[in-house]
Amino acid sequence: MNTPPLLLIPGLLNDARLWKQQLADLAHTTSSTVVDITGANSVSELANAALEQAPAGQFALAGLSMGGYVALEIMRKAPERVLALALLDTSARPDTPEATAGRHKLMQLAETNFQSVIDTLLPKFVHPAHMNNASLVAVIDAMAKTVGKEAFLRQQQAILSRVDSRPSLAQIKCPTLVLCGREDAITPVEIHEEIAAAISGSHLVVIEECGHLSPLDQPSKVTGALRKWLSTATL
């Protein structure tokens, strides 16, 4: 039995560096592709782009945060392509009015001071105890600068216009991992409990001492959960 190729979708202001440790640790297990989700301003278009970047045939699919929104859209568009699904630090819900207002404020701020947007989001991305980890902070800052202001605005527009994914969760039939950091300040544990409860047979993993960007905050623990999940999906 062969492990399927892995399609990884990063989150807002993230790129392949989000998954650096997982890419290295899983290199002997499977081939991995990290999707670019900076080129469109709707989740539907981003899902189409991800499918174009995906390996031929079937694959395992993992998305974090905004990448989870795109992954759930892929499950609606092409469920037959996905052998296993991992949803990390994400939500099936649409934005609350408060979250929408916050996004609009950040979009306005980005027009005049993009670095302030990065500095505002950083404490929400990692566990408080890891804010003094200079290398971790530098990676997050560098990813955001690489994505840049224009792509950030497109990504926020896509997030703002996303659909409520909760009604379609029950249709997901493949092996599913739902994972989050215990201290995720953006998509807390109860959001993931809701997702796991709606997907039959899914497995919920909560990573201790971990914030929103779990693959960077607790890389070895996330890799372990992904490795176990991948073992349930075979071509």
Largest sheet: 6 strands, parallel
Number of continuous helical runs:
9
CATH superfamily membership = Alpha/Beta hydrolase fold, catalytic domain
Termini gap: 6 Å
Instruction: State the total count of DSSP E strands.
Output: 6
| Oligomerization status of the protein chains | single chain
Average pLDDT reading: 96
Order of helices and strands: EHEHEHEHHHEHEHH
- Strand percentage lies at 5-15%
In the sheet with the most strands, the strands line up as 2-1-3-4-5-6
What is the helical fraction, as a range of percent? 40-55%
Domains (count): 1
Q: How would you describe this structure in keywords?
A:
235 residues; alpha/beta; Rossmann fold; six-stranded parallel beta sheet; 9 helices; globular
How would you describe what is shown here?
By secondary structure, this protein is an alpha/beta fold. The chain has one domain: Rossmann fold (3-Layer(aba) Sandwich), CATH 3.40.50. The chain is built from 9 helices and 6 strands; from the N terminus they run βαβαβαβαααβαβαα. It has helices at 20-25, 43-53, 66-77, 97-112, 114-125, 134-160, 189-198, 214-217, 219-230, and strands at 6-9, 32-34, 59-64, 82-88, 176-181, 203-207. The protein has a 6-stranded parallel sheet with strand order 2-1-3-4-5-6, sandwiched between helices. Helix 2 (43-53) packs across helix 3, helix 4 (97-112) packs across helix 6 and helix 5 (114-125) crosses helix 6. The longest helix has 27 residues, at 134-160. The termini are close together.
